[in-house]
Amino acid sequence: MAALLPILIVLATVLAMEGIAGASHKYVMHGFGWAWHRDHHEPHDGFLEKNDRFALVGAALSIGMFAIGSPLIMGGDAWWPGTWIGLGVLFYGVIYTAVHDGLVHQRWFRWVPKRGYAKRLVQAHKLHHATIGKEGGVSFGFVFARDPARLKAELRRQREAGIAVVREAIR
């Protein structure tokens, strides 16, 4: 029973991180952080992207939470949930790396899903990359994906309203 609360904290953190990552993607990466994120949306040479710096931010958050939860570092001021929150952030980072960088962008392995949720994730993120520039766009989350048909309709509305410039292939 004593392990139940830490497990729940880890799981809640993993779920919360999708919301935090999605909001960060929309408002930071497509906002004042565009200088780091731009090369993720444009063709480029090389394995690493400036965008990969955001992974370092996530790692720093995880490490910081581990530190806050560590009696070795914080002494009697340690906040025990910090360790479990740090672990949840770490788990989300592993999931993000496998799903977004691995499956969607095929940086680690080559597999094109033909059906199911994996196909939906890939389609949703391709629709995210359908806009030119940082304005507008859809599907800012990384692990949960809305219905691609609804995302296409939203892109169409954004294009017609002049909010986003959409690549020809999606129109």
Features:
171 residues; 2 strands; 7 helices; mainly alpha; two-stranded antiparallel ribbon; 2% strand; 2 domains
Description:
This protein has 7 helices and 2 strands. The chain folds into 2 domains: 1-111, no CATH class; 112-171, no CATH class. The chain has 171 residues and is an all-alpha fold. The radius of gyration is 18 Å and the shape is elongated. Strands 1-2 form a two-stranded antiparallel sheet.
In short:
With 171 residues, the chain is mainly α. It contains seven helices and two strands, in the order H-H-H-H-H-H-E-H-E. A two-stranded antiparallel sheet has the order 1-2.
Provide the domain count: 2
**Mind telling me the C-alpha Rg?**
18 Å
Poorly predicted runs: none
Number of helices: 7
Arithmetic mean of pLDDT: 93
Distance between the termini: 54 Å
Helicity, in percent? 55-70%
Sheet of most strands: 2 strands, antiparallel
Secondary structure: number of strands: 2
The helix-strand sequence is HHHHHHEHE
Category from helices, strands and their pairing: mainly alpha
Approximately how much beta-strand content do the residues carry? under 5%
Shape: elongated
Strand order of the largest sheet: 1-2
